[in-house]
Structures are given as C-alpha cells and as structure tokens.
Amino acid sequence: MNNLSMIGNLGKDPEIRYTQSGIAVVNFSIAVQRPFKNKQTNEYETDWFNCTAFKKTAELIADSFTKGSKIAFSGRVQNNNYTKDDGTKVYRDVILVENLTFIEPKSANNQNKTQSNSYKNSNQNDDPFAGNNDSIDITDDDLPF
User: Fold this and answer.
1) Rounded to an integer, what distance in angstroms lies between the CA atom of residue 31 and that of residue 11?
2) pLDDT tens per residue across span 92-134
3) Range of the structural domain that residue 68 is part of
4) Which positions ≥6 away from 77 have C-beta within 8 Å?
5) 34 within some domain
6) Does 85 fall in a domain?
7) Where are the alpha helices (DSSP H) in 1-104?
8) 39 torsion bin: left (phi>0), alpha (psi -120 to 50), beta (else)
9) Residue 135 lies in a domain
10) How many domains does the chain have?
11) In a domain? residue 141
12) For residue 93, what are the CA distances in angstroms to 61, 79, 80, 103, 144?
C-alpha cells in the first residue's frame, strides 16, 4: 500500500502551469519538522519534500497557499525516474497530493479563526495523467523535472 499523510509549511509559493490539453499541474515543496531533537544540537531538524497536484486540487493549492502556509494532505509517493541526454540515470521521488485539508486561514487577517475544510480529489484513485476518456498530450516541458 502506498499512502501517506503530511502536515508541513510551504517553502515557496506554489508554481502552477497547464499541460497542452489544459490540465492544471502545481509543484511545491514542504518543510516537515521531525518529531524529535537532534541529540548533538538539541534542535529539531527539518525534512523537505517535493509535491505535485493535478486538476482542481492543483488550482486550489495555487489559489489558497503561499510561502510559509501550513498545509495538510494525503497522497502517495511516485518515482519520477528518468535518463538525462548524457545517459545519466536520475532518481527522484515526488509526493502526489490527492486529498487536501485546510488547517489555517488563507489570509493573515483571520489568524484567530482556523478552518478545517477538506477537499477530496474526485479522481483520487485514478492515475493523475489519465482523463475519463480524454487523451493527454504531455511534452518534456510539462514534466516537473
């Protein structure tokens, strides 16, 4: 089973783009603090993860989150391995966001109120590159790496 849940903060503003067939794709990275302190430094360490979302989920993330925003989601890990032109194999994992939960307000003016609204991708069990009967034209420019 390939399923995970994460809560973290965006490291920079989400970057949204659209494939040639109009499908929204957003890429972002999140920082997740480890639940324990480093014994030598007595400080919490942070892990960084690259994330991708598609379709309505991508648009929602791009419209609702900015650098530093706290985000909670569930999804799965996918290998995006490829070979460079020089023959070098590149191994890269990305987290595909499938379900999104708002855990803090969009604007800083509403910091005293917290939201707990959930958004579930209607195609969460589908391959994000597959449409209902639509073909998707993806070029090298559409790939997040």
Assistant:
1) 6
2) 999 999 999 888 765 542 343 334 455 555 444 444 444 444 4
3) 4-130
4) 2, 4, 93, 94, 95, 96
5) yes
6) yes
7) 55-64
8) alpha
9) no
10) 1
11) no
12) 20, 5, 6, 25, 11
Nearest-angstrom CA–CA distance, 136 and 133 = 10
Residue 77: give its domain's CATH number.
2.40.50.140
Q: What string of H, E and C letters represents the secondary structure of 88-143? A: CEECCEEEEEEEEECCCCCCHHHCCCCCCCEEECCCCCCCCCCCCCCCCCCCHHHC
98 beta partners:
none
Q: Is the pTM of this model over 0.90?
A: no
Instruction: Look up residue 133 and give its two tokens.
Output: 């009967």
Q: pLDDT at position 142, please?
A: 52
Q: Please name which of 138, 114, 129, 3 lies closest in space to residue 58, comparing C-alpha atoms.
A: 129
pLDDT tens per residue across span 56-90: 999 999 999 999 999 999 999 999 899 999 999 99
What whole-number distance in Å separates Cα of residue 12 and Cα of residue 54?
18
